[in-house]
């Protein structure tokens, strides 16, 4: 078998593996770096500088995917939230859900005589576990080398504590079983799904979110009504918007970020039963499939959370 065919088979295998739960140990971890807080008001401005330097250093580590600062500001501004080093484990899950990050890195700057101590805090958005690392800078005018040292320590810590920070992925089959158990003795209302999707930088878009949500609801015994080909009106309307965008690249692999926002409307009285949002990140060997995987993951998370709202009264 020639080398080109072997290469293609290897890449296909890698892509399939990365989408499975068994790839948790090798798939890159999505990280968001927040500004550092400061013990002294005069150091507050330096908190953002440290975060920017740290983010730049972490992007060089192949086992990490770092969410871009501009994208973080945009997403959090939409939710009237501000990036600060005061994020705690209780709010880490919410921030992670918005940013599509599994790990948050933030910290505090502490003045110690003429020196500056950089205390890094690494938080899981899924398990609430928190770890720390420190380094010391001779002053505000000499931050580059200490931040580089802190980045190396943080990267090593995430690798060492990966299972505590990023728990093994629950398979789709396991999640379906969990939802079926939740629905025992109950039935789902009929649903129409109208999600407008956009894949930035791509001309054609497959309805990944609507397809995944419809598939899950039908597997759970629900009825999904296609308004274009059915005169029967569904009891509930799930509407919203979704987009995916290509992120960083690592060799043959490409990451994609997705965002889904939707609401559940009861048609009988036009009452909004729920409003929710979800971000997702996926890695694959192709841009399009990475975007679809990120959208599908976000859709599955939303269905599981909104399931109680889709049950017949």
Largest sheet: 6 strands, mixed
**How does CATH name the architecture of the largest domain?**
3-Layer(aba) Sandwich
pLDDT below 50 for ≥5 consecutive residues: which ranges? 1-23
The quaternary state of the protein chains shown equals single chain
Compute the separation of the termini in Å. Answer: 60 Å
Overall geometry comes to: elongated
β-strand number: 10
The amount of beta strand, in percent, is 25-35%
Stated plainly, the CATH topology of the largest domain is called Rossmann fold
The CATH class name of the largest domain reads Alpha Beta
Gyration radius (Cα, Å) is 22 Å
What would the average pLDDT be, to the nearest integer? 82
Order of helices and strands: HEEHEHHEEEHHHEHEEEH
Question: Into how many domains do the coordinates divide?
Answer: 2
Q: Helical proportion?
A: 25-40%
Which structural category fits the helices and strands?
alpha/beta
CATH superfamily of the largest domain: TolB, N-terminal domain
Number of helices: 9
Keywords:
313 residues, alpha/beta, Rossmann fold, 2 domains, 6-stranded mixed sheet, 10 strands
Can you put this structure into words, describing what you see?
This protein is of the alpha/beta class. Helix content is 38%, strand content 29%. The protein has 2 domains: 25-165, TolB, N-terminal domain (Rossmann fold, 3-Layer(aba) Sandwich), CATH 3.40.50; 172-310, ABC-type transport auxiliary lipoprotein component (Rossmann fold). The chain has 9 helices and 10 strands. Helix 2 packs across helix 5 and helix 8 packs across helix 9 (287-310). It is elongated and about 75 Å long.
């Amino acid at each position: 078998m020639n080398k080109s065919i072997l290469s293609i088979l290897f890449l296909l295998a890698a892509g399939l593996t990365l989408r499975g739960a068994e790839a948790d140990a090798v798939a890159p971890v999505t990280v968001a770096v927040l500004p550092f807080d400061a013990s002294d008001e005069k150091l507050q401005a330096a908190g953002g500088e440290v975060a920017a330097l740290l983010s730049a250093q972490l992007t060089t580590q192949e086992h990490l995917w770092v969410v871009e600062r501009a994208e973080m500001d945009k997403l959090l501004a939409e939710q009237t939230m501000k990036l600060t080093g005061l994020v705690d484990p209780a709010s880490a899950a919410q921030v992670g859900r918005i940013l599509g990050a599994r790990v948050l890195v933030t910290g505090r700057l502490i003045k110690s005589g003429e020196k500056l101590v950089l205390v890094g805090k690494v938080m899981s958005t899924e398990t609430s576990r928190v770890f720390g690392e420190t380094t010391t800078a001779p002053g505000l005018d000499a931050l580059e080398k200490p931040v580089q040292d802190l980045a190396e320590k943080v990267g090593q810590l995430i690798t060492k504590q990966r299972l505590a920070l990023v728990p093994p992925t629950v398979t789709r089959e396991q999640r379906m079983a969990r939802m079926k158990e939740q629905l025992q003795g109950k039935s789902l209302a009929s649903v129409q799904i109208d999600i407008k999707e956009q894949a930035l930088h791509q001309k054609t878009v497959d309805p990944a979110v609507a397809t995944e949500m419809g598939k899950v609801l039908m597997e759970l015994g629900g009825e999904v009504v296609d308004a274009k080909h059915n005169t029967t009106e569904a009891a509930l309307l799930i509407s919203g918007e979704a987009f995916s965008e290509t992120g960083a690249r690592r060799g043959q692999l490409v990451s994609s970020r997705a965002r889904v926002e939707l609401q559940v409307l009861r048609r009988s009285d036009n009452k909004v039963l729920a409003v929710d949002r979800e971000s997702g990140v996926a890695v694959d060997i192709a841009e399009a499939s990475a975007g679809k995987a990120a959208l599908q993951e976000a859709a599955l998370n939303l269905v599981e959370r909104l399931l109680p709202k889709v049950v017949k009264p």
